[in-house]
Design goal:
By secondary structure, the chain is mainly β. The protein contains no helices and eleven strands. Strands 2, 4, 5, 6, 9, 10 and 11 form a seven-stranded mixed beta sheet that branches. The chain has a four-stranded antiparallel beta sheet with strand order 1-3-8-7, with no helix packed on it.
Length: 119
């Protein structure tokens, strides 16, 4: 089992910055990718950014150049630095970890952290 705990959400004005953290514990060695998703009211959950075990990263087009995902292996923590925030970035942000069970990925989720961008 893997446990994920997010922190760092909050209220910020447009153009501001926030950094989210996701601390992982448990069977961490089985994880091959960690991602950040978000879900705005009335919308589907969407992938925002991901970082693979080898270090490769990927981003949604809507956040490229503004968000940076990184990790600290010593702390078993993944971060999402969010800059130049826009009102449309408002959502609940979820940390996700995937492990392979056979040939299929199994998802672990954090509890979510609210990010509100408003003037």
């Amino acid at each position: 089992q893997v446990q994920l705990v997010e922190s760092g959400g909050g209220f910020v004005q447009p153009g501001g910055s926030l950094r989210l953290s996701c601390a992982a514990s448990g069977r961490i060695s089985s994880i091959y990718t960690m991602d950040w998703y978000r879900q705005a009211p009335g919308k589907q959950r969407e992938l925002v950014a991901g970082i693979h075990s080898g270090g490769a990263t990927n981003y949604a087009d809507s956040v490229k150049g503004r968000y940076t995902i990184s990790r600290d292996n010593a702390k078993n923590t993944v971060y999402l630095q969010m800059n130049s925030l826009k009102i449309e970035d408002t959502a609940v942000y979820y940390c996700n970890a995937k492990e392979l069970r056979g040939a299929l990925p199994y998802n672990y989720w954090g509890q979510g952290t609210q990010v509100t961008v408003s003037s």
